[in-house]
Structure prediction request, 478 residues.
Amino acid sequence: MRFRTVLIAAAAASSALATPAMAHRQWLLPSTTTLAGTSEYVTVDAAVSNDLFYPDHVALDPAAVKVWAPDGSEGKVENPSKGRYRGTFDVAIDKPGTWKIGMERSMIGGTFKLNGEQWRVGGRRPPMAPGAARPSGAAPAGAAPAGAAPARAPGAPGSAGGQAGGQPMRMVASVAEIPAGATEVKLTESLSTYAIYVSADAPTKGVLTPTGKGLEFDPVTHPDALVSDEEAQFRFLVDGKPAAGVKVTLVPGGKKYREAEHAQELTTGADGMVRVKWPVAGMYWMSATTEDAKPSDKRASARRMTFGSTLEVVAP
Amino acid sequence: MTSSKILPAMPLLAAGLVATPALAASVTITIPQVKVAEYHRPYVAGWLEPVGGGSARTVFVWYDVKKGGREPGTKWLADLRSWWRKGGNTMKLPANGVSGATRAPGSYTVPIPANLPAGQYVFKVEAARETGGRELVSVPFSVPAKGGSASGKTELGTITIR
Prediction:
């Protein structure tokens, strides 16, 4: 029972951002977002949990984290460690300006039918149970070279998962492994970004420059200049254009010490903007999600996009 | 190096010979005594903001100027969080006539720049103390000089503009 929960959570860790209905939240929590001088470090916690920011569920692996320095160069994750509930790492903030620290992920997932049986595409493969039956010809998990699969005879796609709860879990790792005979192919592209921003001396906007791809955070109020008695204005873009109807959730940390979650649900207007009022100072978890029908892969029908961040709001 | 123009209040009064033109305003800052087991002199910054908008101008910042090494005194300047956001984060320190060492409890008078355009301003003083509190006091004033006064509760005493 417990084991299954963890499995689902592991999948949530990788795709939670693509599925807003999933309660588990992925987060990075920096020790601070504002530093004086360029001889400092920021130390970051990384985890997946329901309540913010309590690492009580699944650790995020610092190996997935990238660092963008203010000048566009790549920064370094130092002292990475993955504990039971929490990953941690340090970043030397040794150049002035705003740094971006986070993860980017894109995948195509969904389902198809083969000989009347339902198969899943993408997601994380559950560990193979010892002695679990595999469909004949299936390669061990993870060993199937992508691209080789379509040539395989129908009935033997790349690989298969183990048996869980008596239900066969049939799965291929990627779109490339969908066999030619597949029917009812339903695929969704998921793009997710989670990033935190840390500034040494004056904040800069270099790392916030939009790339024009997917859902992007284009803040009018700098994320490292948030004050509890000042309204913040955040714009969201999809493919470089202001995106209306983006759902933005903001949750302050520290629920343990109050009665309610105090989550705010906002939606961007035609100008792609949300205006945020902060009920209290503190660290906030933000998640913005939207969906459209412009996936990069022709076989996919929808594109789900998520942008997440942890924002520090100081008292005036 | 950091020859600040800060003078103790008493000598300034004694030097009252100089006819004070309307623009030669000054601000007097009181750092209160705080009775705690572990006391450190606070970091204090003072700046003015035009009421009609425009950039803030730092008048003084008192911090541990001499401390260098792995944890220089500048490290905790960001604890003056309002000042840091309003201009501290773009300043090169030490700054001549602006930065100075931390002060013991007492009253200190600092001249306000004489070249301010006429208008409404707010003078802000922020203090942050290691293992202690942090406080921000705002005093509205205008040029030509019309002074004002406000008091802090914990980390700052009376702030007076004359």
